[in-house]
Specification:
The protein is mainly α. The protein is built from 30 helices and no strands. Among the domains are: 262-357, no CATH class; 528-665, no CATH class. The protein has helices at 2-24, 31-50, 63-79, 88-100, 103-125, 132-143, 147-151, 158-173, 179-195, 197-216, 221-253, 262-270, 272-282, 300-305, 319-327, 329-339, 341-357, 369-373, 382-387, 405-425, 430-438, 446-471, 476-496, 510-520, 523-531, 534-559, 565-588, 597-625, 634-656, 662-665.
Length: 666
């Protein structure tokens, strides 16, 4: 029971993140999402063919189908030079989650992982804090940071911050984690490293800083060695998996997957690369970039992806030109460094500084109307991803986010400043002042551990700005994707300064107990508390879990197994009832039961059927008695659900999960 209660903040944090997503709009996509999804779909099909789960399609015979097949092959051929920048592993995760559910399932999984690492961070940074502070930390991060805007983003950006926290926890909190938590964090780092190269660099920066801090504070060398082996092993395993996949693609297609020349474009846009390019081309250098030397060349993003002849470079080339640009990137970068090293250093530091202050949300707030109406994008996978859950209306404007990037600039810049002030203000608290005055830096001290972990998380934010700003250029998305780390670290650090739970069993602080004591003394409240049963709350949680299982299995039965709505619901409902029976048996009603399991299951099914009949009956009767409720179906639906819940709870408690008699137990 203690383990379940301690894990409830993770569920609460997940629901808070989803609530913000729902309030702002809905899960969103990006142009790169199409590439991820396409690569993931191809990988899933190849796995299905190899395991004989899916039959290879027959060669087309119709002229139109032949033309479409040739176009698909040509598109895949052109995508190979950028394939290393679009991980098929994340694409596989995206594709599978879409086949089972929708973008909401993708968002829920990313929100759950984020809430889990935040909970672990709270548990290590505030080991003696009351349990209510865990909910406060989740609320602060969900409602007061950029986290929800990247949990609902169908891109791998959210895992940059998650892997940074994982690396910090493993490095300095190894001994405070159990085996399964270490395994989970190691797998998270490996997955993050597979799906994007910058995640590996951030994790390594956190590891190096953590090892240095641990060495200075005389942390156990054995634990730090295990942590370093886990983190580096996960990154090496990620590189091996990616390498094997690229080799498989090369073997199958004959094309060598490549990575776009981001660094070369960055140096050109910064100025030193542009000056060197024009000077060397004038002296007869044979760079492929010389064909574009007369363009403005002042925006790396447009140089990479624009399809306008007046500003596009990489995206305007054919397969051979793209491959040559990639092949010449490293020699070109070395020549630029030799040509103007101080100019490159100055530009990199300026990009780093710009990236540090750009923490607002922009790309996740794009209006999906563009992807649904644009002649090119409406032929891609994006419209299906957007409309898979529900449509955006006839004019395609029904999915517009309820917050703009300008509003985000004011909101999230202010929240980030508050988080930074709170993080440094942590040192001004009494235990922080005593810690600085004593100068006893040992990780066995909870104040030292809390402040050091907060510093590691802040280092992850700074390292992300350096890596992204120097390599790709300062973009708000790159800073905002990890800005929530500051809020999470500040909230956990403040929670670590709270006194230990002393006031009551719920872990309320004394001032809160004094505040609500008059309210709890009111006769109606006192009457209700005496009759409130915690098992009913657990029963409601199990019901919510059953609804989620029913929904996901129904979608999977229709999308994957090809069932119709009736047979799919029959299967999903049956399995959901089995799951809720097991959960109620082991979680809600944990006492010794009067009935044997088989008889208990039969009674439970009968109770559920009776509750369902009453649910529908009350719903229909309410509409029959008050026809005006047809325009407000939420009201009769609430009446029906409440009646059904009461009957199923009472029937489950009194009949299905009836407590065994004392003599039977003896």
């Amino acid at each position: 029971m203690r383990r379940w209660l301690s894990f409830l903040p993770v569920l609460a944090g997940t629901l808070m993140i989803l609530a913000v997503v729902l309030a702002v709009g809905r899960p969103v996509v990006f142009p790169d999402t199409d590439d991820y999804f396409a690569h993931g779909k191809n990988a899933a099909y190849e796995i299905g063919y190899a395991l004989h789960l899916k039959a290879r399609p027959k060669p087309p015979t119709d002229p139109d189908e032949i033309a479409d097949a040739k176009q698909i092959v040509a598109d895949e051929h052109m995508s190979h030079p950028v394939m290393k920048a679009r991980s098929p592993i994340y694409g596989l995760f995206l594709y599978v989650s879409q086949r089972i559910g929708t973008l909401w399932l993708t968002t829920a999984i990313q929100a759950l992982i984020s809430a889990w690492v935040i909970w672990l961070l709270w548990r290590i940074m505030a080991p003696r804090a009351p349990l209510w502070s865990a909910y406060a930390v989740q609320a602060a991060t969900a409602f007061g940071s950029t986290l929800p805007f990247f949990a609902d983003f169908a891109m791998p950006d959210i895992f940059a911050g998650c892997s940074a926290i994982a690396a910090a926890l493993l490095t300095l909190g190894w001994g405070r984690l159990n085996v399964w938590e270490r395994v989970g964090l190691g797998l998270l780092i490996s997955f993050a490293a597979i799906i994007h190269g910058s995640h590996s660099l951030i994790a390594i920066a956190v590891l190096a800083s953590g090892l240095l801090a641990g060495w200075f504070m005389k942390a156990p060398r054995r634990e730090m060695g295990f942590a370093a082996a886990t983190i580096l092993g996960g990154i090496v395993a990620a590189a091996a998996i990616n390498g094997l996949y690229w080799k498989a693609v090369e073997y199958k297609t004959g094309d060598t997957p490549g990575r776009p020349p981001f660094l070369a474009m960055r140096l050109i846009a910064d100025g030193p690369g542009r000056d060197y390019l024009r000077a060397s081309c004038a002296q007869g250098a044979q760079w492929e970039l010389c064909k574009f030397k007369n363009l403005p060349l002042n925006n790396s993003d447009r140089m990479m992806w624009s399809d306008r002849p007046t500003e596009g470079v990489f995206n305007m080339g054919n397969y051979a030109q793209r491959t040559l640009l990639e092949k010449q990137e490293m020699p070109f970068v070395l020549k630029v460094l030799a040509y103007d090293p101080w100019g490159v250093l100055r530009a990199s530091l300026m990009n780093w500084g710009k990236q540090l202050i750009e923490v607002f949300v922009d790309d996740p707030l794009l209006d999906p109307h563009y992807y649904l109406a644009n002649p090119y994008w409406k032929t891609t996978n994006l419209p299906w991803l957007i409309d898979h859950d529900h449509g955006c209306g006839p004019d395609h404007h029904g999915c517009k986010p309820r917050i703009s990037s300008t509003q985000s600039w004011w909101l999230h810049s202010g929240l980030c400043i508050v988080a930074v002030l709170a993080l440094f203000g942590r040192l001004a608290l009494p235990d922080g002042r005593r810690w600085m005055a004593a100068r006893r830096f040992s990780l066995e001290d909870r104040t030292t551990l809390s402040i050091t972990l907060a510093a590691l998380v802040l280092i992850a934010f700074i390292a992300n700005a350096l890596i992204c700003g120097a390599l790709s250029g300062p973009f708000p998305r790159y800073g905002a994707r990890v800005a929530w780390l500051i809020t999470a670290a500040a909230a956990c650090a403040l929670a670590g300064a709270l006194p230990e739970r002393t006031s009551d069993e719920l872990g309320m602080p004394a001032w809160l107990s004094r505040l609500i004591a008059p309210v709890l003394a009111l006769p109606p409240i006192r009457w209700g508390l005496k009759r409130f049963e915690p098992s009913m709350l657990r029963f409601g949680l199990v019901g919510f879990a059953g609804f989620a299982i029913d929904r996901l299995l129904l979608q999977g039965a229709i999308s994957i197994l090809g069932m119709n709505a009736f047979t799919g619901r029959l299967l999903s409902f049956s399995l959901a009832v089995v799951c809720t029976w097991l959960l109620n048996r082991s979680f809600t009603f944990r006492h010794d039961h009067h009935h044997a399991p088989l008889k208990q299951a039969m009674i439970y099914v009968a109770v559920q059927v009776a509750g369902g009949i009453l649910n529908v009956g009350v719903y229909e009767v309410a509409i029959w008695l008050v026809p005006a409720l047809k325009a407000h179906l939420l009201i009769p639906l609430a009446f029906g659900s409440a009646a059904g819940l009461c009957v199923t709870y009472a029937g489950s408690k009194r009949f299905a999960f009836r407590r065994a008699a004392p003599e039977t137990v003896a």
